[in-house]
Amino acid sequence: MQTGVRMEKRMVKVPKGLAEHLHRSLGDLLEGMSLRCFEGKPPFGKEKRAKITQLNGVYDPDLTASI
After folding, report:
1. What is the model's pTM?
2. Distance separating alpha carbons of residues 1 and 3, to the nearest angstrom
3. Average pLDDT, the chain
């Protein structure tokens, strides 16, 4: 299904970079993240979290999950 989801521009850069690194589409990455979260499992292992940390350093999204 095609969706018209809107997200903060800075928020999209990190998962988009991770998807490219993994040779996957952004949609496939987000779908996998959602499925794992719905099952109560962490969406990423140690290696992928290290890549996310690296991408955060590059893109500096300056966003957190805290409310």
Report:
1. 0.83
2. 6
3. 91
